[in-house]
Backbone:
């Protein structure tokens, strides 16, 4: 490995943050976007859903490309698409065009979410890969802390268009970093076919692997609650609880700090516990906090303090669930690591798109749609985890 490990993790972390950064910087602009295009905030949220759909679809495209052409070339191409689409978003003349360009932006930028996972699988064994994923979350977590505040400040001073110019600048910076500083971790493999039948066969092989299915699905379903929060939080905190754009940005960062803190505590936990043991605790806890959110919503007992506290605890659990479920789902694969990473990412973003869209569909002016969807997806994730673990134990004869 020629690239210095610290430099490698920094680049991979920032690449992984391209999706959250593209979301967090413009969330505070929902009211102004809605006003400029004379639509409702719920309608603007479709630009978030289209972004999630683009990430989900795009990752499926990049999986075979990363296995066939290596990691670096697809990365560079995707970042160019992201850069150009970001510029297009900045000058969108209508909400419909903005929604469409957000899809294209996501298709380009999602390579930054697929490739790092594959590169980690290329270079690190299971125990170390879970630690590396935790370090990536540390960098990834900076986005929800900095981006909303930066975005809200830019929106207030320069308008919502400015955040997309900022995203274009990020795309250019990442392109230059990958081009000059990132060494290839896995060269091109001409035995990997790009024909539909072999690609489908590879994805099916990954999908039907019991360990992949269990941990990728369970982790993705639980993580979908975060996207429900992202979609519903502008309404809940700015419309219902009356926070300003700046206050919302600070709150967004505070909640993200729970994810960062726990992801680093996960590194310490891995010294004494296995990834399997950690996930067995973190996922049920997320379900517990999700159910508490719903109960308080049903009886209209939520204050801003209670909902923030429970979301913070939910995010803390996610800092343990995500790195370990990701590492465990990729263990069975080496040659197909790119495709496995893509399929896992597609599941995460697919469920994320669904949960965020459902928040908009069931919006009723209360916080119940957001909290109910958070709890529902977490519960489904726990069910998949329990059933999948039984199948893994049966297959192994233990």
Residues:
């Amino acid at each position: 490995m020629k690239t210095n490990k610290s430099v490698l993790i920094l680049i991979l972390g920032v690449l992984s943050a391209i999706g959250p950064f593209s979301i967090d910087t413009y969330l505070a602009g929902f009211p102004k976007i809605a006003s400029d295009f004379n639509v409702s905030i719920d309608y603007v949220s479709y630009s978030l859903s289209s972004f999630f759909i683009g990430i989900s679809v795009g990752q499926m495209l990049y999986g075979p490309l990363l296995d066939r052409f290596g990691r670096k070339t697809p990365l560079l191409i995707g970042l160019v698409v992201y850069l150009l689409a970001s510029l297009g978003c900045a000058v969108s003349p209508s909400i419909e065009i903005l929604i469409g360009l957000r899809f294209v932006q996501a298709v380009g930028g999602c390579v930054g979410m697929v490739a790092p996972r594959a590169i980690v699988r290329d270079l690190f064994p299971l125990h170390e890969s879970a630690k590396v994923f935790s370090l990536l979350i540390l960098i990834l977590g900076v986005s929800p802390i900095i981006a909303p505040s930066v975005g809200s400040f830019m929106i207030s001073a320069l308008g919502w268009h400015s955040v997309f110019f900022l995203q274009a600048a990020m795309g250019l910076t990442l392109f230059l970093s990958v081009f000059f500083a990132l060494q290839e971790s896995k060269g091109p493999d001409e035995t990997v076919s790009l024909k539909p039948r072999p690609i489908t066969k590879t994805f099916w092989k990954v999908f039907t692997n019991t360990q992949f299915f269990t941990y990728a699905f369970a982790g993705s379903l639980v993580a979908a609650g975060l996207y429900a929060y992202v979609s519903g939080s502008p309404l809940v905190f700015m419309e219902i609880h009356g926070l300003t754009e700046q206050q919302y940005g600070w709150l967004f960062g505070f909640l993200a700090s729970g994810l960062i803190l726990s992801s680093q505590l996960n590194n310490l936990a891995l010294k004494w516990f296995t990834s399997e043991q950690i996930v067995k605790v973190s996922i049920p806890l997320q379900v517990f906090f999700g159910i508490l959110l719903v109960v308080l919503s049903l009886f209209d007992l939520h204050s801003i303090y209670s909902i923030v506290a429970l979301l913070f605890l939910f995010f803390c659990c996610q800092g343990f669930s995500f790195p370990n479920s990701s590492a465990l789902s990729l263990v069975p694969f080496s040659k197909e690591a790119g495709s496995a990473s893509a399929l896992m990412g597609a599941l995460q973003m697919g469920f994320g798109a669904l949960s965020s869209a459902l928040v908009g569909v069931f919006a009723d002016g209360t916080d119940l749609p957001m909290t109910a969807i958070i709890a529902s997806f977490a519960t489904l994730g726990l069910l998949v985890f329990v059933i999948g673990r039984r199948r893994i134990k049966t297959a192994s004869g233990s």
Observations:
- The chain has a mean pLDDT of 85.
- The chain has 18 helices and no strands.
